[in-house]
Amino acid sequence: MCVYCFAMGNVTQVAFQLDNDSLAAVDALAEHVATSRAEVLRIAVRELLARRREALIDEQLASGYGVTALGDEQVLQADRSVEGLSAADLDW
Questions:
Q1: In a 3-state reduction of DSSP, which class is residue 83?
Q2: Residue 42: which of 17, 8, 4, 6 has the closest Cα?
Q3: Which positions of the chain have pLDDT values less than 50?
């Protein structure tokens, strides 16, 4: 049984071009952290995808909270609540 295949699960080999300066930086990083060029690239892709996913979630949250504006009746009720609490002079 292939140990590498077991560790990687379902994988697809991808070939792409990278400029020499970037490749040299990847190789230096791989040497510095004692890993392989491929692992550095896998980590970079996973981190980029995670950041993109987080950004999309943030956009969805902002959109969801921003869509619902208070209506006139809701604003009036909120104001009355604040006035009632202020008038009650509660010792919190």
A1: helix
A2: 8
A3: 1
How far is residue 8's CA from residue 22's CA, in Å, rounded to a whole number?
A: 25
Q: What is the pLDDT of residues 21-31, one digit of tens each?
A: 999 999 999 99
CA 32 to chain centre: 26
Contact indicator for 30, 36 with CB cutoff of 8 Å = yes
Cα–Cα dist 9/39, whole Å: 15
Q: Indicate the SS3 state at residue 14.
A: coil
Please answer whether residues 30 and 40 qualify as being in contact, where contact means their C-beta atoms are separated by less than 8 angstroms: yes
Whether the full predicted model's pTM is greater than 0.90, yes or no, is: no
CA distance 9 to 89: 64
69 Ramachandran zone, left/alpha/beta (phi>0; psi -120 to 50): beta
Helix axes 20-32, 37-67, angle to 10 degrees: 100
